[in-house]
Automatic annotation (TrEMBL), chain A:
SUPFAM superfamilies: P-loop containing nucleoside triphosphate hydrolases
Native organism: Tetrapisispora phaffii (strain ATCC 24235 / CBS 4417 / NBRC 1672 / NRRL Y-8282 / UCD 70-5) (Yeast)
Pfam families named among the record's database cross-references: ParA
Residues given in the record as ATP binding sites: 24-31
Entry's localization field: Cytoplasm
Its job: Component of the cytosolic iron-sulfur (Fe/S) protein assembly (CIA) machinery. Required for maturation of extramitochondrial Fe-S proteins. The NBP35-CFD1 heterotetramer forms a Fe-S scaffold complex, mediating the de novo assembly of an Fe-S cluster and its transfer to target apoproteins. Required for biogenesis and export of both ribosomal subunits, which may reflect a role in assembly of the Fe/S clusters in RLI1, a protein which performs rRNA processing and ribosome export.
Name recorded for this polypeptide: Uncharacterized protein
Record keywords: 4Fe-4S, ATP-binding, Cytoplasm, Iron, Iron-sulfur, Metal-binding, Nucleotide-binding
GO biological process, one term: tRNA wobble uridine modification
Main location: cytoplasm
UniProtKB/TrEMBL annotation, chain B:
Purpose of the protein: Component of the cytosolic iron-sulfur (Fe/S) protein assembly (CIA) machinery. Required for maturation of extramitochondrial Fe-S proteins. The NBP35-CFD1 heterotetramer forms a Fe-S scaffold complex, mediating the de novo assembly of an Fe-S cluster and its transfer to target apoproteins. Required for biogenesis and export of both ribosomal subunits, which may reflect a role in assembly of the Fe/S clusters in RLI1, a protein which performs rRNA processing and ribosome export.
Binding-site residues, [4Fe-4S] cluster 2: 258, 261
Sites where the protein binds [4Fe-4S] cluster 1: 32, 46, 49, 55
Family according to the record: Belongs to the Mrp/NBP35 ATP-binding proteins family. NUBP1/NBP35 subfamily.
Gene Ontology cellular component list: cytosol; cytosolic [4Fe-4S] assembly scaffold complex; nucleus
Annotated keywords: 4Fe-4S, ATP-binding, Cytoplasm, Iron, Iron-sulfur, Metal-binding, Nucleotide-binding, Nucleus
GO MF: 4 iron, 4 sulfur cluster binding; ATP binding; ATP hydrolysis activity; ATP-dependent FeS chaperone activity; iron ion binding
Highest taxon of source: Eukaryota
Protein name per its UniProtKB record: Uncharacterized protein
Subcellular location: Cytoplasm; Nucleus
Protein's organism: Tetrapisispora phaffii (strain ATCC 24235 / CBS 4417 / NBRC 1672 / NRRL Y-8282 / UCD 70-5)
Length: 279, 333
């Protein structure tokens, strides 16, 4: 197709690593995993950018407490919305959510418009120098996914983190996503199993609400790395929902949660791979 | 393999399932009026577009397939869409439950159609994901889970269980049309349509293609936390814009009772009041909340009816209450 770039994307020239967060299934926690990956990397001191290409259901503005914000336009292009990190790395976000006037407005777009929007995100956003760009995606293997694959064709992304929940119904959809990655030549960095068990706050017993082990089996069957599992932690949802009243930054608040240590191990596995920087 | 060649390869493979009506030479430009629209080939955006000639030559005016769809769906009494802007809130689970619950009455004929093309879950939940559908000259015969429960999904048309459907919207629209036009449902009391998350091609198309056949309305599924409600808000906005009647909202995964200590916790905490407050604010009927029961997920994985296996679970009661409230809304009018 003629609209595809024929060279690496200029706006991503100074981005060292590009990681996509994918899952065939909806509601497994792609945006949660994206948020936690960003916060964890910030804690290490990296400069992180987050791009939300879920156009009809953007969750990241709420995740980062940026719902009222909007994107500024400079002469060079769009400036990502910064998140206050109090010196721990840096964090900025781009999402279609910032371009909507009202949070309840629906974006009822067919494919070609979504494709054009993603292209615009690629061309117009001035990310500047970043260590990591995380791309959060909608569920499925359709317009958004084909478009981002086409756009990144020459830009050499590091690969994808695949998110699943443990039950078969979710794993079945995630298998389709893995096959998609193989077809478009996205390297798979590994699988994260989210919502794996819930620890009862009353008796500390762990219940596997969505069964368990699906992610590990999936990784084994497809011979891809298993990065680890994250239990359901209502404290995380609470932190997201109450962040406006918090006195500390999201990065600091997250550090205090018990799941942040789980997540740190997952990110450590990614860092240990020493993926070749793009620049 | 590079992205574009994948898309091309996929196109040729798909042709076995579905011949394309037309082939565009280039991606549609930003302000494309749509190849099937009245203004195709004539708008400002069309000047200089490589597709101009193709679009201009496409048939215009009312879609000739709509009368065929109306004819094919004419023996279906009630058509219900199961919607949610958010993924993973339980649209397919609830569609499956609704199908099981309605078909428990032997006098009712029930159909369940899966519009989630990239992530079909309904067949697995109904225990028929290994079934294969072949096309005959009378159309597509649905898969029967029980004598009075028929289903259709793209899953039945896939060469392998885990084949990825890497389709852009226009291709999905054609399949949806085919499902509406060519599936031989015969007489049905209820057709339940399970949808993918979002407000995009599948949603626009199902509404466009089915509107004149009469859609009773939409059952909207959510979970209690604000991040989910935020997306569901958009879906309701979509329903209003598209003129789809909202039959009501059901809140899924609300509350969890620990099997060890019977203590209750809110896993997806309703910090903004959950589904109930949301319904009040938007003035739509609240049909009830269904608590989390780990056995629901297990039953969905194994394709068994949770309602039959665990009639004593509080979740079963809650689901049956919602189904009853829904039937009252539909049949009462």
């Amino acid at each position: 197709m003629s609209d595809e770039p024929s060279e690496p994307i200029a706006s991503l020239k100074k981005v060292k690593h590009i990681i996509l967060i994918l899952s065939g299934k909806g509601g497994v926690g792609k945006s949660s995993v994206t948020t936690q990956t960003a916060l964890t990397l910030c804690n290490v001191g990296y400069r992180v950018g987050v791009l939300d290409i879920d156009l009809t259901g953007p969750s990241l503005p709420r995740m980062f407490g940026l719902e009222e914000q909007s994107i500024f336009q400079s002469t060079e292009g769009w400036i990502p919305v910064p998140v206050e990190t109090n010196g721990a790395g840096s964090l900025s976000v781009i999402s279609l959510g910032f371009l909507l006037n009202d949070r309840s407005n629906s974006v009822v777009w067919r494919g070609p418009k979504k494709t054009a929007m993603i292209k615009q995100f690629m061309v117009d956003v001035q990310w500047g120098e970043l260590d990591y760009l995380l791309i959060d995606t909608p569920p499925g293997t359709s317009d958004e996914h084909i478009s981002i694959a086409e756009q990144l064709r020459w830009s050499n992304p590091d690969g994808a983190i695949i998110v699943t929940t443990p039950q078969n119904v979710a794993v079945a959809d995630v298998k389709k996503e893995i096959n998609f990655c193989r077809k478009v030549n996205f390297n798979i960095i590994g699988v994260v199993e989210n919502m794996s068990g819930f620890i009862c706050p009353h008796c500390s017993d762990c219940t596997n609400i969505f069964s368990s082990g699906g992610g590990k089996e999936l990784a084994k069957a497809y011979e891809i790395p298993y990065l680890g599992n994250i239990p359901i932690d209502p404290m995380f949802v609470e932190m997201i929902e109450n962040q406006s009243s918090n006195q500390i930054t999201l990065v600091e608040a997250y550090k205090k949660l018990s799941i942040s240590s789980n997540f740190q191990q997952i990110i450590q596995k990614v860092l240990d791979k020493k993926l070749e920087p793009r620049c | 393999m590079a992205a574009s060649s994948v898309v091309e390869e996929q196109t040729t493979k798909d042709d076995l399932i579905l011949p394309p009506d037309y082939e565009l030479q280039a991606p549609e430009p930003e302000h494309c009026p749509g190849p099937e629209s009245e203004g195709a080939g004539k708008s400002d955006a069309c000047n200089g577009c490589a597709n101009k000639d193709i679009c201009e030559s496409l048939p215009k005016g009312p879609d000739p397939d709509i009368p065929l769809i109306i004819e094919n769906l004419s023996q279906i009494q009630h058509k219900i869409l199961v919607l949610s802007g958010k993924g993973g809130v339980g649209k397919s689970t609830f569609s499956a439950m609704l199908s099981w619950a309605l078909s428990a009455d032997e006098n009712l004929q029930v159909g369940a159609m899966d519009l989630d093309i990239c992530g079909p879950s309904l067949p697995r939940m109904l225990g028929c994901n290994k079934e294969v559908v072949h096309e005959s000259n009378t159309g597509l015969t649905p898969v029967y889970v029980a004598d009075n429960l028929a289903t259709m999904s793209i899953q039945y048309l896939l060469p392998e269980d885990d084949s990825a459907i890497v389709w852009r919207g226009s291709k999905k629209n054609q399949l949806i049309k085919k499902f509406l036009k060519d599936v031989d449902w015969d007489y049905l009391d209820f057709l339940i349509v399970d949808t993918p998350p979002g407000t995009s091609d599948e949603h626009i198309s199902i509404n466009k293609f089915m509107k004149e056949s009469g859609i009773d309305g939409a059952l909207v599924v959510t979970t209690p936390q604000e991040v989910a409600l935020l997306d569901v808000r958009k879906e309701i906005d979509f329903c209003r814009k598209a003129g789809i009647n909202v039959l009501g909202l059901v809140e899924n995964m609300s509350g969890f009772v620990c099997p060890s200590c019977k203590g209750e916790s809110q896993i997806f905490r309703p910090t903004t009041g959950g589904g109930k407050a949301f319904c009040k604010e938007l003035n739509i009927p609240f049909l009830g909340s269904v608590p989390l029961d780990p056995r629901i997920g297990k039953c969905c994985d194994s394709g068994e009816s949770f309602l039959d296996l665990y009639p004593d679970s509080p979740a079963t009661d809650a689901i049956l209450d919602v189904v009853e409230a829904l039937r009252d809304t539909i049949e009462g009018k």
